[in-house]
Design brief:
Helices cover about 35% and strands about 20% of the residues. The chain has nine helices and nine strands. β6, α5 and β7 form a beta-alpha-beta unit. The structure holds iron/sulfur cluster. The site of iron/sulfur cluster has 10 residues, from loops.
Length: about 250
């Protein structure tokens, strides 16, 4: 073996060791990103086409919107616990359930949310992400099912919808409108038609509680022959509106 070749081999080995070392440090740094976690709990999925299935919920803290009908204001107001991804995975694993939803607050406001989603997918979970639709869908693994809100006028934030997200969604992803009155309903129906949403995704029309009676929304949907799913929050029906962690 020539000296030149030997030196080359030694250099190559050093590069490989360094590469692995930096990869190791990189993985460690990802796993140690702290996120503000409001709560992690096990319940029945109350919304989306997954409604009724047992599910672990990871609720991240913080949301910069303040929708009038928000039912998780505590996730905006409370600071939550700072947990790294490994700790979140450990707590999630304790429930022995393979369906997990990352929600909020607004989870995409948290730095490290894409890494958390990646880590959950890597552990073999079926992962749902609930997002308010005002932030770009960047860095989200394609295995994740995205349930994206389109904010209606009565929320006060329909001008914040990040419309480019519609092109980033996959057919398996779902779109949700929370509807407070007939004006919201008419607006949602126009958006539905303009973007052919029913042809592309499961679309959920959810009555805002207590502003709109489910019966009214049901009758409008039937009257106008809309191809959407009326969504009632079944966790609320079962446990009532005030109970947390369900
Ligand atoms: S976007 Fe969601 S979490 Fe944020 S205020 Fe509105 S309803 Fe609440």
């Amino acid at each position: 073996m020539s000296q030149k070749y030997l030196k080359f081999q030694i250099l190559l080995a050093l590069f490989q060791i360094c590469d692995r070392f930096f990869l190791f440090i990189f993985i460690l740094s990802i796993l140690s990103i702290p996120l503000r976690v409001n709560e992690i709990f096990y319940s029945l999925q109350g919304e989306s086409t997954f409604a009724g299935l047992p599910c672990v919920f990871i609720r991240l803290s913080g949301c910069s919107l303040h929708c009038i009908y928000c039912d998780t204001r505590y996730a905006e107001d409370e600071p939550g616990r700072a947990l790294d991804i490994e700790s979140i995975l450990n707590e999630t694993g304790e429930f022995g359930c393979k369906l997990v939803e990352v929600t909020g607050g607004e989870p995409l406001e948290a730095e490290g949310a894409p890494e958390l989603l990646n880590a959950l997918v890597g552990k073999g979970y079926s992962v749902l992400l609930e997002t308010n639709g005002t932030l770009p869908l960047r860095g989200i693994p394609r295995e994740v099912t995205i349930i994206m809100d389109i904010k209606c006028p009565s929320s006060g934030f329909s001008n914040k919808v990040h419309w480019a997200n519609l092109e980033a969604l996959a057919p398996k992803d779902e779109i949700k409108f929370v509807i407070s009155d007939e004006n919201d309903y008419q607006w949602a129906a126009r958006i539905l038609e303009k973007h052919s949403l029913s042809q592309r995704h499961a679309v959920l029309f959810s009555p805002a509680f207590p502003a709109l009676r489910p019966q009214s929304l049901a009758e409008w949907i039937l009257r106008d022959r809309l191809s959407v799913r009326l969504q009632l929050q079944i966790h609320r029906i079962i446990w009532g509106e005030k109970k947390r962690g369900v």
